[in-house]
Amino acid sequence: MTARKRYWLMKSEPDAFSIDDLQRVGTEPWNGVRNYQARNFMRDGMKVDDGVLFYHSNAKVPGIAGVARVASAAYPDATQFDPKSHYHDPKATPEQPRWFLVDVAFERKLKRTIPLEEIKQHADRLGEGFPLTSRGSRLSVFPVTAAQWKLLLALE
């Protein structure tokens, strides 16, 4: 029996790494996540071929810009060991890594970015506690139910 496919939303600032960048490179390590809950989602929850909504945050029009998929199992984020990296963690060692990542592969750009303001109009249908419509939620990686996935992509 195969495991049920899961869905995720992953945020990136388009000035740092956009859906266009992912389309250009094809597959990219999702490095630099330094939030334990987001790390745990990648390390413990994500499986190869899970769906990813690629969200542009801190943009002129924040919103869902594309679809990707998880392309690898979780593995240690090498930037934690590099003293020259902005993401260096002096407490992490190769023997005891603290931060993990997955590779993400491009699937497609949406016909249009689904703006956050439009997503908020569907807060009731997305459910209480959905991170994009909840105040104070700043998670960069979080699970999306199959129903939420379907609803959000139907807005395209």
Automatic annotation (TrEMBL):
Which regions form coiled coils?
none
Which InterPro entries did the record assign?
5hmC_binding, EVE_domain, PUA-like_sf, THYN1-like_EVE
Q: Which residues form the EVE domain?
A: 6-154
Q: Where are the transmembrane segments?
A: none
Q: Which Gene3D superfamilies match?
A: ph1033 like domains
Q: What Pfam families does this protein's entry cite?
A: EVE (PF01878)
- The lineage's top-level taxon is Bacteria
Q: What is the name attached to this protein's record?
A: EVE domain-containing protein
Naturally occurring in which organism (per UniProt) = Pseudoxanthomonas daejeonensis
